[in-house]
Amino acid sequence: MLTDLGLDELRAYRSDFRAPVDFDAFWAATLAGQAQYPLDVRATPVTTALREIDVFDVTFAGFGGDPIHGWLRLPHHLDAPVPAVVQFPGYTSGRGAPTDDLVWPASGYAQLAIDVRGQGASHAPGAMGDPHGSGPAAPGFLTRGIDSPHTYYYRRVHVDAVRAVAAVRSLPQVDPDRVAAVGISQGGGIALAVAGLVPDLAALFAQAPFLCDIRRASLITDEEPYAELPRYLRTHRGAVEPVFSTLAYFDGVAFAGRAHAPAWFSTGLMDPICPPSTTFAVHAEYAGPKHLAVWPYNAHEAGGSADLEIVLAGFADVLHRETEPRVPSMSGGTS
Questions:
Q1: Does residue 258 lie within any of the structural domains?
Q2: I need a surface site. Which of 99, 121, 142, 280 has the fewest CB within 10 A?
Q3: Residue 252: which domain range?
Q4: Does residue 82 belong to any structural domain of this protein?
Q5: What is the CB neighbour count within 10 angstroms for residue 188?
Q6: Cα–Cα distances in angstroms (integers) from residue 90 to residues 124, 125, 128, 203, in the given order
Q7: How many angstroms separate the CA atoms of 41 and 55, rounded?
Q8: What is the C-alpha to C-alpha distance for residues 42 and 40, in angstroms, rounded to an integer?
Q9: pLDDT (tens digit, 0 to 9) for every residue of the chain, 335 residues total?
Q10: Per the residue annotation, which of 15, 93, 185, 266 is the catalytic one?
């Protein structure tokens, strides 16, 4: 069934979220404070049975110098630097196995698929813990360190993500001017944050993005992981405004208004996890060229492989030729 507003209402919907006045200063100071840590990018070849794709186990220094892990997958026999995608996983998932998810390198891209710190217990394994503690939190990650934006879990995650872009740009096999951020659900929310924090990012793909219009999401879905917020606030009754004051520094609506890379978004109108109005909210606010695929009878998978076909065609247009970027028309879905 539909989980949110009707399509006409969704197209007209605008979030009432407003970013804190010091949003830009907060993130500028956060990123500047991490510059003291060298990236220390290391890539170790991994032996696989793949014949046309080379795989490397990559580490680089993320927030606080913590080592972040990822798989670098490259088309075999490169004779020139290629465009790259940095890929972020869904909630509680990790980078998986070296031979997972080969579409991007098979399409001519360098792909850095990174872990999200502390995650990797479901869907696909991860290798990165989170050595930074926090105060009381609901089970999961959404309320960890939520007493302050400075201690909040996703501050560390977003720094890791920004430094992942810097890490892949440092590789000799990659054209640093042609790097995109991609992800599904949590990964889409992280990729959107990267687009807002890395001004010269080349492209964005955010499929059913999480962490967007967060307060609304907490009121209209009781599915995980947004359900972690009301679970926490049921016992911390006086913390409602402080909690959403912290989350305001991490809302995708704020990052969307600061992002300019050509972007592809996607949502399913039957999505109970990331309500479609939250994706419409960031799409409406997004400051760069943009397109939104709408799938009336799909849930959190949104367009699935159909989305990927659309984005592969769009990225080829933007990242594989030296012309003015544009977002091509969609084939499939309802825009």
A1: yes
A2: 121
A3: 7-33+127-319
A4: no
A5: 31
A6: 9, 11, 15, 19
A7: 15
A8: 6
A9: 899 999 999 999 999 999 999 999 999 999 999 999 999 999 999 999 999 999 999 999 999 999 999 999 999 999 999 999 999 999 999 999 999 999 999 999 999 999 999 998 666 666 667 778 766 666 789 999 999 999 999 999 999 999 999 999 999 999 999 999 999 999 999 999 999 999 999 999 999 999 999 999 999 999 999 999 999 999 999 999 999 999 999 999 999 999 999 999 999 999 999 999 999 999 999 999 999 999 999 999 999 999 999 999 999 999 986 444 444 433 345 44
A10: 185
DSSP line for 19-71: --TTHHHHHHHHHHHTTTS----EEEEE--S-SSEEEEEEEEE-GGG-EEEEE
pTM score > 0.70 for this model? yes
Q: With respect to residue 42, please indicate whether it lies within any of the assigned structural domains.
A: no
What do you get for the CA distance between the two ends of the chain, in Å? 20
**Backbone angles phi and psi of 227, in degrees to 5:** -60, -15
One-letter identity of residue 312: L
Q: Residue 176 belongs to a domain with what CATH number?
A: 3.40.50.1820
Paired tokens of 131 = 């050595």
Structure tokens that stand for 100 in this block: 């997972």
Verify whether residue 300 is a known catalytic residue: yes
Annotated active-site residue 236? The verdict is no
Active-site residue, selected from the candidate residues 4, 283, 300, 307: 300
Number of domains composing the chain: 1
Count the alpha carbons within 13 Å of 2 in the hemisphere toward its beta carbon: 9
Which of 147, 213, 251, 271 does the annotation list as catalytic? 271
115 is catalytic: no
CB 290 within 8 A of CB 262: yes
Do residues 257 and 286 make contact, with C-beta atoms less than 8 angstroms apart?
yes
- The answer to whether position 334 is within a domain reads no
